[in-house]
Amino acid sequence: MPADPTPANLLLVGGVRAVPLGLDMAELALDQAHARGLRTHLTNQEAVLAATPTVARRAGAVSAVDFTLPGESAAWARTQSGAGERFDAVLALQEMAQVAAAETAEALGLPGNPPEAVRRVRTKDACREALAAAGFRQPAVRLCADRAEAEAFLHTSTGPWIVKPRDAMGSTGVSRITGPADLPSAVALLPGEGPFLVEEFVQGAEYSVEGLFLDGAPVVLAVTEKEKVEPPFFVEVGHVLPAELPAATRQEIEQQVERALTVLGLRSGGFHVELWLSPDGVVLGEVHGRFGGDWIHRMLAHAVPGLELYGLIYDDLLGRPLPDRAALRPVRAAAVRFLTPPPGRVVAVEGWAEAAGHPDVLLADLAVAPGDTVRPLRTSGNRVGALVVGADTPDQARKLARELADSVRFTVEPE
Question: Where are the transmembrane segments (predicted)?
Fold first, then answer.
């Protein structure tokens, strides 16, 4: 696409975290902006900017702004605007910067999600309350200040239960309990000292729905099948996209997700909605106003040939022509399998080069080498690698991802 003689200016609030997944998403987002002739200005905390030089070099301009400070990003953007810098679109890539981006877009009078809607979905109990009030199936949940409040909730509800942070990601601090005796260890896993959530455990297969907003309406791109470790923890070890579901079930999932996003007030950017297929039907889980992690963006790009996730958002925010929705459906499949060796000190890794070099591997990431320590599998950050593969069908993708992951052999000494 040729550059506009008066290029639009994109502000990416909050940059990315200094991890391979975040770096990959940011580099793709910036490349797709530049392919559309956009100028880019990226903000992030000073220490993270220093730790992500490849991203900083791709951006047209970079500024140190702490998106975690309430109102800081919006105030900075107003100051820049008053000094003559023009912004035409605002976007945040990472979860923790969504509120700052919404506040900034509102302050500049630009399209974006209402800040109150973003705060609602970022606060898990508030999101559940809003969905339940609108008639969606939701597990009973209680915001608890301490163990005593949590134990009182257990006596009024049906177990088992999930203990989780009110506002976190990556399965951090999430565990399943079967009674009051399990509470001390579950609470000890939580990050920080603030209030936490206890909710009824939902029995059923887990999925997520990936999509984005075009013209203010949610557009589902795919439903993703999840595989997690056995309780008490819930770390995801694999995904397959698109999920193999009966047409009626897929349609019911997509309709519920689209209606829920509208009820919650989201209208811009990407989305990633988790859910269960319970014996009683669809039960919506956590709602995110950004694309899914775990390399789902790479899986989507293979399953939907020619898809540019971030470019579509820019086109939407800037009022540019948008594609036919029918062209935004998977015609191929992809899967990811995460490497999760037992905890201990790594002595040797065998078979990685062969697995990573398979012609159907879309992305290979290994985070450990001999001498490194593997932590017990408690959060997604404890996984040590990933293999993303593409195939013609979901079953082929699932089998290939498992075979390649199983072919990587770790020798680990207990510590």
Answer: none
Structure tokens, 363:
């992305």
pLDDT for residue 193 = 81
Who contacts 129 (Cβ-Cβ below 8 Å, separation ≥6)?
none
Closest Cα partner for 110 from 9, 6, 5?
A: 9
Angle, alpha carbons 294-212-394 (nearest 5°): 50
Give CA separation, 66 vs 33, 48, 270, in Å: 23, 10, 22
pTM of the model: 0.93
What is the assigned CATH class of domain 9-110?
alpha beta
Q: For residue range 46-105, what is the model confidence (pLDDT) as tens digits? A: 999 999 999 999 999 999 999 999 999 999 999 999 999 999 999 999 999 999 999 999
Q: Write out the CATH class of domain 140-200.
A: alpha beta
| 376-398 pLDDT tens trace | 998 899 999 999 999 999 999 99
Topology of domain 332-415 in CATH is D-amino Acid Aminotransferase; Chain A, domain 1 (3.30.470)
Burial class (CB in 10 A: 0-12, 13-18, 19+), 2: exposed
The pLDDT-based confidence of 318 (bands split at 50, 70, 90) is very high
Fold equal for 140-200 and 203-331: no
What DSSP designation does 107 have? H
Burial of residue 409 (CB within 10 Å: 0-12, 13-18, 19+) is exposed
Strands (E), 31-188: 39-44, 61-64, 89-91, 141-144, 161-165, 175-177
Q: How many CB atoms lie within 10 A of CB 176?
A: 18
pLDDT value, residue 1: 45
CA atoms of 206 and 284, how far apart (whole Å): 10
Enumerate the domain spans of the chain: 9-110, 140-200, 203-331, 332-415
DSSP element (H, E) containing 389: strand 385-391
* 29, 11 Cβ separation under 8 angstroms: no
Main-chain dihedrals φ then ψ at residue 204, nearest 5 degrees: 155, 165
Reduced to 3 states (helix: H, G, I; strand: E, B; else coil), residue 150 is: helix
Task: Enumerate the β-bridge partners of residue 240.
Answer: 225, 335
